[in-house]
UniProtKB/TrEMBL annotation:
The keyword Transmembrane does not apply. Residues 100-207 form the Fe2OG dioxygenase domain. GO terms for molecular function: ferrous iron binding; L-ascorbic acid binding; peptidyl-proline dioxygenase activity. It comes from Faecalibacter macacae. The lineage of its organism: Bacteria, Pseudomonadati, Bacteroidota, Flavobacteriia, Flavobacteriales. SMART domains: P4Hc. Keywords: Dioxygenase, Iron, Metal-binding, Oxidoreductase, Vitamin C. Its cofactor is L-ascorbate. GO terms for biological process: cellular response to hypoxia. This is 2OG-Fe(II) oxygenase. Pfam families: 2OG-FeII_Oxy_3 (PF13640).
Length: 213
């Protein structure tokens, strides 16, 4: 092998992305790391410092609860605390692995905490903005109970294409320690209505802009 060690967890994610544009991983963080992240998000006193999420970016921002009902808080990597340090150490390691092995050209990332309370959802959408195409990969880290049940709702539904062009829906339950990663530009997705508060960290790996912004 060359100068760096193969990471089998990252390799599986990369193979999946190249083959199907998404991957679901249940061991990106260890269970101890997941517990720390989960306690941290809950300890921020349910929604303290969280605000109603908007739609679109700053050039096109409006709040529309009929489209998305989550409350979010952006994470400031420059002022990260101990628990966020665990998060960024792993994520940045993954980003450099992606850049070394796949020449992905990821130059930036952004992440926010998200809390969906009972009755909220996020309607079908694509993550990349029309006026800013830097978002390349979307990552969602779920921080709920390990025994999240189907009847609690809150599935991430990816709208994928069959070979014949018809659509199929892949429903992903937001279990603790689960990470979903998918192509930000091509995969429409939604969060189904939750029946019970659902916590996550959501973010984007971004390349250099190609459309002039
Ligand atoms: O929480 C999820 O499963 C997905 C969230 C999402 O699609 C978004 O924030 O853009
Ligand atoms: Fe999204």
């Amino acid at each position: 092998m060359g100068e760096f060690a193969l990471n089998s967890i990252y390799e599986k994610i990369i193979d999946d992305i190249l083959e199907q544009k998404y991957s679901i991983s249940d061991n990106f963080f260890s269970s101890e790391e997941t517990t720390q992240l989960r306690n941290h998000v809950i300890n921020q006193n349910t929604n303290e410092g969280f605000h109603q999420a908007a739609i679109g970016n700053s050039q096109n921002e409006k709040i529309l609860k009929s489209i998305r009902g989550d409350k979010i808080k952006w994470i400031d990597e420059a002022n990260k605390n101990e628990v966020e340090e665990i998060f960024f150490t792993k994520v940045n390691d993954f980003i450099s692995y992606l850049n070394r092995t796949c020449y992905m050209g990821i130059e930036e990332s952004e992440f926010h905490y998200a809390a969906y309370t009972k009755g909220t959802f996020y309607q079908r959408h694509v993550d990349a903005f029309k006026n800013d195409d830097r978002r390349t990969l979307s990552m969602v880290f779920y921080l709920n109970d390990e025994d999240w049940k189907d009847e609690f709702g809150g599935q991430l539904a990816l709208h994928l294409l069959n070979d014949d062009g018809s659509e199929k829906e892949l429903n992903i339950l937001p279990f603790a320690g689960r990470m979903a990663i998918f192509d930000s530009k091509t995969i429409p997705h939604e969060v189904k209505t939750v029946k019970k508060t659902r916590y996550s960290i959501t973010g984007w790996l971004k390349t250099r802009p190609t459309n002039g912004f």
